Amino acid sequence: MYRSTSLLFAVLLLVGCWSRHKKNEPAYTGPREVTIEWLGHGCFRVSSSIGLTIITDPFNPHGKAATVPADVILITHEDDTSNYTDLVSGSPIIFRSSMAAGVNRASGILVRGIQTSSESLVASPKLNVAYTWAMDGIRFCDLGAIEDALTPSEALNIGHVDVLFMPVGVPQNFTEEKRRITIERLRPRIIVPMMGEWPYRQSNVVHVRGNRFTMTASQLPTTTTVYVPSIR
To answer: How far apart are the C-alpha atoms of 51 and 135, rounded to whole Å?
Structure first.
C-alpha cells in the first residue's frame, strides 16, 4: 500500500511539473506585424503575425497564377472579378452576399459585414457588402464595389478604421466627391486604392515597391496616408 501511494505521488508530481512547464512556455514573441499583399483587381491577401490569412474578392486569373492559401475568403459582390473561390487553396471559410451581413467569427477573427446602400434614389441597386476585421491591433475595412458614399449609419456600423481598401476608377459611380465624403466619415489612417492608381496629388502618398508591404500598429501614420502597391 505504501509503495502504491509513493508511486502515485511521484506520477502526480511529474504531471504537475510538466503542466507548469507548458504554462510557462513562451507564446509567439515575434513582431505583431501584418502583411498586406495586392494580387490584382480588388483582391488582397492580409496575413497576421501568426499566419492567419484573409483573401478579399478573389478573381479569375485565367491560368496566369497559381492558387494561394487562405483561412477566410470575403466576397463583397458577385461578379467574375470578385467571386472566383477556386483561386484559393485549402478549406477556407467563405463569406458572401447578404448572408455575410452582421458579426461572424472565422478562424478566431471577428468579421463584420455591412451591406452598403445609397443616399441617392437613382443609384444602382447592386448588392455590395463591406467588411471589417482586426489583426494584430490593426482594424481593416474593405469597401468592395461600393457605388455611393457611405451613409452616416453605415460609417457608424463600420466604426474605427486603420487600413481602408477603397475602389478607385471602378465602379464609375463612385466618384471623387463620393470618395471624399467616405474618407471624411471614416477617417482612416491608411488608404489602399483598389482597381486603379490614386488619382490625386497630395503629400501623403507612399508608392510601394512591389505588391506587398508589412505594417505594425505602432507604425500607423497619424494623418491619412495613401499606400499604392504595384504588381511586379
So the answer is: 11
